[in-house]
Amino acid sequence: xxxxxxxxxxxxxxxxxxxxxxxxxxxxxxxxxxxxxxxxxxxxxxxxxxxxxxxxxxxxxxxxxxxxxxxxxxxxxxxxxxxxxxxxxxxxxxxxxxxxxxxxxxxxxxxxxxxxxxxxxxxxxxxxxxxxxxxxxxxxxxxxxxxxxxxxxxxxxxxxxxxxxxxxxxxxxxxxxxxxxxxxxxxxxxxxxxxxxxxxxxxxxxxxxxxxxxxxxxxxxxxxxxxxxxxxxxxxxxxxxxxxxxxxxxxxxxxxxxxxxxxxxxxxxxxxxxxxxxxxxxxxxxxxxxxxxxxxxxxxxxxxxxxxxxxxxxxxxxxxxxxxxxxxxxxxxxxxxxxxxxxxxxxxxxxxxxxx
Length: 356
Description:
71% helix; 0% strand; single chain; mainly alpha
């Protein structure tokens, strides 16, 4: 059972390594400086960056979006003098919601793809994807309208993510071309995720090589990087996934239940299972037998993790990426927002499926 379950966890290791290299070399700070020029107002900047996350999550995958764009959004908010909370939480909410479109957008999609009856395909999810993305952006913009209306304000000083003090240059400017390794590793990971059906080992190889180069140049601390990997947490999740995969081959209870469930019941069951055991193990268990509504199952597995940070591996990447730039994510705040946003985005996606 482990043979078919390990790739997502190896991919996450590779993405975390590349994310650590990006944070250590100033790549994210430089990207944030460019992103900060996207909109004239705080609201337009916020929506533009959410659109970037949605596109990245759909075309690459949500893990890539969570690992690489969360620091960019947080630092862009700081550079514009905006409250970072909407950008911090918006990055993961949108990454989850936008992962419905393509099979490669979310690894759970690949696990469920084999159960999809003829006549499916990416086009079948366009309406659901668009509805989830629009509702997610709308709820976040409404919730944080005051924070976004207060800016942009000029930022003084040289704090994290802010512009350098007068007469000085930022650290990444002093290093000049030293972001080349991080930029190359990020681009390579994106290309592998898009172009290779099983990119996990290749992405891990790219991340290990980039981390080794920067550690040799003493820009990356090996001990700190090993702590950031959280091998214990990943190992525990991997063990749960293997156990549930084994259970799925011997017990057909949930599979039989979904074979007769409505689309709303299927999505609700999938969302609760994702929050309880993470969406990858949940997908292994729930897709062991062909469900009556495979697209509704994807809605629950992909958008359902917006209910709580336990819902997806992308949450772990998001948490680490946020901490790498000095942000302080809160599971309580995330769930307080997600308990409203998650059901609304799921309902919109299911309604779109019903009409298409």
